[in-house]
Design goal:
The chain has about 50 residues and is mostly helical. The chain has a domain of about 25 residues. The protein has 2 helices and no strands. The longest helix has 12 residues. The chain is elongated and about 40 Å long. The model has no long low-confidence stretch (mean pLDDT about 80).
């Protein structure tokens, strides 16, 4: 049984301001990571969601 996705929340303010973002992965890198973790069913659901 595939693991269910757990929503991730980020703090409203990043400590250190913009300088604190230097070590933060890009949105594209995070999407790539979670895509690799997703089941085929989760991938289909994601593609359906973003294509609407």
């Amino acid at each position: 049984k595939p693991a269910t996705a757990v929503p991730v929340t980020l703090p409203a303010k990043v400590p250190g301001g913009q300088t604190g973002l230097k070590n933060t992965p890009s949105a594209a890198a995070m999407l790539e990571f979670w895509w690799q973790q997703a089941s085929p069913e989760e991938r289909r659901a994601f593609l359906k969601k973003v294509s609407n």
